[in-house]
Write a structure and sequence with these properties.
The model has no long low-confidence stretch (mean pLDDT 92). The protein is of the alpha/beta class. The chain has 14 helices and 25 strands. The strands form 6 sheets. It has a 9-stranded mixed β-sheet. Strands 4-3-5-6 form a 4-stranded parallel β-sheet, with helices on both faces. It has a 4-stranded antiparallel β-sheet with strand order 16-17-19-20. The N and C termini lie far apart (56 Å). Helices cover 30% and strands 25% of the residues. It is globular and about 75 Å long.
């Protein structure tokens, strides 16, 4: 297994030497594949392609494309050659996309036809010149007629890349202001790819179903980069489809699946797999807390163990993982620190005892370089001794397992008492008529804040305010029972599937 000090080009080159004909990626939609040998050659082609566009190593390359084999080639080829890639959230509104493309200082944008007009509109009026390349997400590697020295030039660029070179600029969702550009180095990315491979004991026989979008840190590191470490592979889909998920996993001989809680919820509502899932040895859940009821229901129905994990964009995806061994996992915990150090601190940033609630802080080789062109935000994100402040509230038990109870900025303070939204979410989810639920604090002249619950009911279920109020009073007591209930068709979510609680307020009028 490679070391964290390696570069992505070194990882790719090593796999190309050891198993050049082995598949690295399968396109579920295109039916095409990329071997490790193909990938090494394609990376050189991408480097040459960028050079012909007038771009140089160190430049930022934005990618506005859904999942596909060319999307993989572009992201890996650019990073291998020393460029910094900026995968753009395809759910962005026009003003958000314009901000990201402007703020990132990108010199080249690769875009599929569906997003071309939006990208060109977003680039209008920018002071710098930006090259726009329109292509298909599953297109073949560029067959550009290269001069005799092109391969040597591409190889020289790849060999010059350092482990501390900036490789990824990924913007946060920006739910409370302008998105922040998280800067991650080659070493940051590889450190977590190594940790994931070790945690799950992955090897060359393993294949993951990649349904999450590559513009999200989880898919980028867990499904795209991790197979480069252990020599495994991925089967990539344009997007998640609940109707085709099991068919895709089984037909492509996947041995593990990587999902977020929203996908678990959809699968529980969907049809049974068309045939045996015995080959799938575990399901990895990430990005947001998985309600214990959903975890148990998934394991019971599909016979696949769930490994709950958690991380941030700022930590190159997971910082916590439950163990691979089922007997060691703890339902409701995000797991043990993985590939890094973690602890709980109080409001004065001092460590607290096990069992006490505080803010989770993280330190290790996976932690970001900082926020792009934002020194103030970078400084605020770290303690004076180098711990990254996650913004998550939680506690650690005596076995070292971490539990997350909510975000600091989402904590509900009612009459001076701190209330963790997740506790009420989970109580609501235990009602058989509730498919999804999330609560948030709203202003109240007497208590400072009251509790609003937004609920998505199961189709055909009897689920009204009177019933849910009684259910909550029994489960969490009258004081923590929401004062307001609103029934909605869906909850607002970011690209990772995490509920954006503060946007719940936009859905209702109180």
């Amino acid at each position: 297994m490679m070391q964290a000090s390696a570069t992505l080009s070194a990882l790719i080159a090593a796999q190309a030497r050891h198993q050049p004909d082995k598949d690295y990626a399968l396109g579920c939609q295109s039916g095409q594949s990329i071997s490790f040998g193909d990938l090494a050659r394609d990376c050189q082609r991408v480097v040459h392609w960028l050079q012909t566009l007038g771009s140089q190593p160190g430049d930022v390359v934005s990618v506005v494309m859904p999942n596909g084999l060319l999307t993989l080639r572009l992201l890996l080829g650019a990073m291998a050659g020393g460029w910094c890639v900026n995968p753009v959230n395809l759910l962005s509104q026009q003003d958000q996309m314009r901000y990201v493309l402007d703020h990132s200082d990108c010199r080249v944008v690769f875009v599929t036809p569906d997003f071309e007009s939006m990208v060109r509109a977003a680039l209008q009026g920018l002071e710098r010149e930006v090259v726009v390349v329109v292509t298909d997400a599953d297109a073949d590697a560029p067959a550009i007629e290269a001069p005799l020295n092109a391969q040597a030039l591409a190889s020289a660029a790849m060999q010059a890349v350092r482990a501390d070179s900036l490789a990824l600029l990924m913007y946060t969702s920006g739910t409370t202001g302008k998105p922040k550009g998280v800067m991650l180095s080659q070493a940051n990315l590889i450190a977590n790819a190594l940790a994931i491979s070790r945690e799950h004991s992955l090897d060359t026989t393993d294949r993951v179903l990649a349904v999450l979008p590559l513009y999200h840190i989880n898919a980028f590191v867990v499904t795209m980069l991790t197979p480069l470490v252990h020599g495994g592979s991925l089967a990539i889909t344009p997007k998640f489809s609940s109707a085709r998920f099991w068919e895709q996993a089984i037909a492509n001989a996947c041995t593990w699946i990587n999902v977020v809680p929203t996908i678990v919820s959809y699968l529980l509502e969907g049809d049974d797999p068309p045939s045996s899932t015995a080959r799938i040895r575990f399901c990895r859940s990430a990005s947001a807390a998985l309600p214990p009821e959903h975890l148990r229901a998934f394991e019971q129905r599909f016979g696949i163990g769930v490994i709950e994990t958690m991380g941030l964009t700022e930590t190159a995806a997971p910082s916590f993982s439950n163990p691979l061994e089922p007997s060691r996992r703890k339902v409701g915990a995000v797991g043990l620190a993985s590939g890094c150090e973690a602890r709980i601190v109080d409001a004065n940033l001092l460590p607290v005892a096990d069992g006490e609630t505080g803010e989770i802080v993280i330190r290790g080789p996976n932690v970001m370089m900082g926020y792009y062109k934002n020194k103030d935000a970078t400084q605020a994100a770290f303690t004076s001794d180098g711990w990254l402040r996650s913004g998550d509230l939680g506690h650690r038990d005596h076995d070292g397992f971490f539990f997350v109870t909510g975000r600091i900025k989402e904590l509900i303070i009612k009459g001076g008492e701190n209330i963790a939204p997740r506790e009420i979410d989970e109580a609501l989810l235990k009602h058989p008529g509730v498919l999804e639920a999330a609560v948030v604090g709203v202003p109240d002249k007497h208590y400072g804040q009251e509790i609003l619950a937004c609920v998505v009911c199961r189709e055909g279920a009897t689920c009204d305010e009177r019933v849910l109020r009684a259910h909550c009073e029994h489960a969490v007591g009258r004081y923590k029972t929401p004062r307001y209930f609103r029934f909605v068709s869906e909850l607002p979510r970011g690209p990772s599937g995490k509920v954006q609680r503060l946007k719940l307020l936009d859905l209702v009028n109180l």
